[in-house]
Amino acid sequence: MNPCDDPLELYRRMLLIRLFEERALESFSRGLVYGTTHTAIGQEADAVGVVSCTRPGDVIVSNHRGHGHFLAYGGPAEALAAEMMGRATGVCRGRGGSQHLHWEDFYASGILGGTIPLAAGMALAERERSAGAVVVAFLGDGTLGEGVVYESLNLASLWTLPLVLVVENNRYAQTTPIARHLAGSLTGRFAAFGIPVEEAETTDVLEVRRLTQPRLDAARAGEGPQALILHTYRFSAHSKGDDTRDPAEIERYRMADPLPLHAARLAASEVERVQREVQQDLERAFAAALAAAPASPASLTPALGSTP
Ligand SMILES: Cc1ncc(C[n+]2csc(CCOP(=O)(O)OP(=O)(O)O)c2C)c(N)n1
Ligand SMILES: [Mg+2]
Description:
Elements: H1 7-29, H2 44-51, E1 59-62, H3 67-73, H4 77-84, E2 101-103, E3 106-108, H5 115-129, E4 135-140, H6 147-158, E5 163-169, E6 172-173, E7 176-177, H7 186-191, E8 197-201, H8 205-220, E9 226-231, H9 247-254, H10 258-263, H11 268-291
Parallel strand pairs: 1-3, 1-4, 4-5, 5-9, 8-9
Antiparallel strand pairs: 2-3, 6-7
Helix pairs in contact: 1-2, 1-3, 1-11, 2-3, 2-8, 4-11, 5-6
The structure holds thiamine diphosphate (TPP) and magnesium ion.
């Protein structure tokens, strides 16, 4: 579905993510989701703004909070819902769950920081292939506490890899506020390796696009890794019920909800039409996922115990 610069389509993608994740949480409470799930309600402008600037062939590397990245990329909602419910029709045939997704050039893993050396390796492969593709890796503020991130930044910079690192600073690592987990500055972590870095406090999808495009262009032009730090906020709990934040703080950030912010630019009738369409699409997607057959160990290849 990428790339995209139609304002209504950007709204549709953000709304799809918001409503998908609300349904995912509801499905979790009903005991329909296997494993865990982390939603990014409030962070939709990051996913849609960044991914909508990528080209077919670019690689997206996502993390434990990746439903939005996946849907922004154009990943099918029905297969994502099915994956979370452990169904054979899931993105990874029901075996990866919420955090472990692979679809086309989209990859996600729940191992914090473990995705960054993988992204650097993929960027090396893309550089060798010379097809002009860029790797975009999303990571959270707390993930900057993982040592392997810095080994990866070092090599990415030394080897001039086409890698764009997007830090979604939602100000918390699980329940730990950034002031209690990060020494120095966010920008300093990239500047130390000579990686150009830009930061912005924004929930505006158009602003995110405006900031992302030059980073992608520079990485594609062979200028090496680039970093973009987006200061954002998640309205939802870290995972399900584990929220220790001050409710007044959450309400304050809700004033900058990316959806109404962007909807205000669009015709009300168009917004209502898109809302109806997305609701219907998700109704169908979740019903189909729920009706699908469960993942079957018998379909593991090679079969357990057999000689490959
Ligand atoms: C290697 C590893 N350690 C711990 C965890 C458990 N864990 C999952 S999310 C999370 C916090 C991540 O914070 P951040 O990077 O800021 O991302 P956010 O959850 O805020 O999107 C932790 C500690 C994990 N998934 N992987
Ligand atoms: Mg965080």
